[in-house]
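Incident log, support desk, overnight shift.

02:14 A customer reports that sequence design results differ from what the structure should imply. Their input is reproduced verbatim below. On-call engineer (initials T.W.) acknowledged and began investigating.
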């Protein structure tokens, strides 16, 4: 009880220290000692907290060290009888001549559209996606919900997880792989270079390793990019043109993918088709792309930056509508020949192809903005800016005669028509329709 006395005395100490003259009783000494210990403990925790915060929040000192994508620390739940049943049922074909396709990046823009189209015509489709947060994951979840309604199950996992990939091939003998999982976007490569190496190079190799060992080996169709043409100035871009001058790390990783494809075709007899997509746009698109965030910013009354090249040079893109791209993807799958290897050994030469999938009519970015202004009925606050030195090229223009000949590819949607469909979807999705769409 006697110890309570000084405590009550302490109660009188004002909250502002130093304003109260304290007597030097032994109690006070003890209390001082206690309070310094408490302070020490408190500050140690603060310090420890700051260190932890530093390690978990800051980009690694070398962008290529530690976790390269800064997003793949997640662990995914997969496996078990119920999971296997879902995998099998999603990949089961409903038509006699159909294929069973593993679609990587199925919750992505192109992945969602291709998966839906395949499923609708009776093919078996299993999706794979790591649902990373490069852009709003809720959009990916909404696409997933859409796919679930058409009977496509998306396995959550990373293409770098070879144990998972092997398991998938153990459960289903996929005839085809539509490989669309990638780190997309040209400009983001300066911010997070490791994620491009992680997904577009390491991830591709991890997938091809599993495909090469699968028995039977699947035929693979995968997404390359128009950006491989880099500084090539010969127009329109033909598959025979040089692609050894990439202007961005993104382009370099896609170009590396094309060389890696050659190697796996050459050594293991994998049938491989690379599709060079030209600025694909449309409903359920990617929010990191200009047409998408221009729409958002115009509606918000925010200014948008329109790039122009030196001497007021026009920056233009061969914008290609998603439905045309889907037709190209399906035709590539349909015309792909079987891989020739088995048990990791090549038995004969296999198919190796690369196609441009573009629209063949480049449109200046400023015209794209004018179309959006008309569709949205809002005037854009335009800010003309010099094309930044961050990987963008001045123009793209596809020569599609090879795809026309071999795939019967014939794009039929012009930018005005395609953007109209995009805007309709956008307004519906983001103004109340979002929940319904999801
Ligand atoms: O065709 C391709 O290979 C590539 O197409 C797009 O890349 P990009 O054409 O750069 O598409 P956006 O980022 O949507 O840019 C479209 C155009 O708008 C311009 N832009 C972009 C952003 C901006 O703020 N202002 C602006 O004028 C760009 O310079 C470009 O000319 C995709 O983002 C890539 O993933 C894809 O591989």
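02:41 Re-run completed on a clean worker. Output:
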């Amino acid at each position: 009880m006697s110890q309570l006395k000084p405590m009550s005395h302490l109660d009188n100490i004002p909250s502002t220290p130093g304003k109260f003259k304290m007597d030097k009783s032994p109690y006070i000494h003890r209390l001082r000692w206690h309070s310094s210990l408490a302070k020490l403990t408190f500050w140690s925790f603060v310090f420890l907290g700051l260190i932890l915060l530093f390690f978990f929040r800051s980009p690694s000192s070398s962008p290529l060290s530690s976790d390269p994508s800064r997003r793949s620390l997640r662990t995914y739940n997969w496996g078990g009888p119920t999971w296997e049943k879902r995998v099998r049922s999603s990949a089961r074909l409903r038509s006699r001549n159909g294929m069973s396709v593993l679609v990587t990046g199925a919750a992505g823009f192109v992945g969602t559209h291709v998966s839906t189209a395949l499923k609708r015509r009776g093919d078996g489709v299993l999706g794979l996606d790591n649902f990373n947060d490069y852009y709003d994951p809720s959009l990916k979840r909404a696409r997933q919900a859409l796919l679930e309604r058409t009977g496509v199950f998306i396995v959550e996992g990373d293409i770098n997880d070879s144990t998972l990939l092997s398991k998938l091939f153990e459960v289903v003998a996929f005839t085809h792989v539509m490989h669309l999982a990638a780190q997309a976007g040209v400009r983001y490569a300066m911010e997070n270079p490791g994620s491009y190496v992680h997904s577009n190079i390491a991830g591709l190799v991890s997938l091809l390793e599993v495909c090469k060992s699968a028995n039977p080996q699947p035929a693979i169709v995968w997404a390359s990019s128009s950006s491989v043409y880099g500084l090539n100035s010969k127009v329109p871009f033909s598959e025979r043109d040089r692609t050894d001058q990439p202007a961005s790390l993104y382009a370099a990783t896609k170009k590396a993918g094309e060389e890696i494809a050659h190697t796996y075709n050459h050594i293991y007899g994998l049938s491989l088709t690379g599709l060079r997509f030209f600025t694909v746009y449309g409903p359920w698109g990617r929010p990191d792309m200009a047409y998408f965030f221009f729409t958002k910013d115009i509606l918000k009354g925010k200014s948008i930056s329109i790039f122009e090249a030196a001497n007021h040079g026009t920056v233009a893109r061969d914008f290609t509508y998603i439905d045309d791209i889907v037709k190209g993807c399906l035709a590539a799958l349909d015309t792909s020949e079987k891989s020739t290897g088995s048990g990791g050994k090549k038995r004969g030469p296999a198919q190796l192809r690369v196609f441009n999938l573009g629209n063949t009519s480049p449109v200046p970015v400023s015209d794209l903005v004018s179309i959006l202004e008309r569709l949205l009925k809002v005037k854009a606050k335009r800010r003309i800016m010099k094309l930044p030195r961050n990987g963008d090229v001045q123009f793209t223009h596809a020569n599609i005669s090879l795809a026309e000949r071999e795939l019967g590819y014939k794009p039929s949607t012009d930018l005005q028509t395609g953007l109209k469909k995009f805007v309709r979807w956008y307004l519906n999705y983001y103004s109340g329709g979002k929940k319904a769409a999801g």
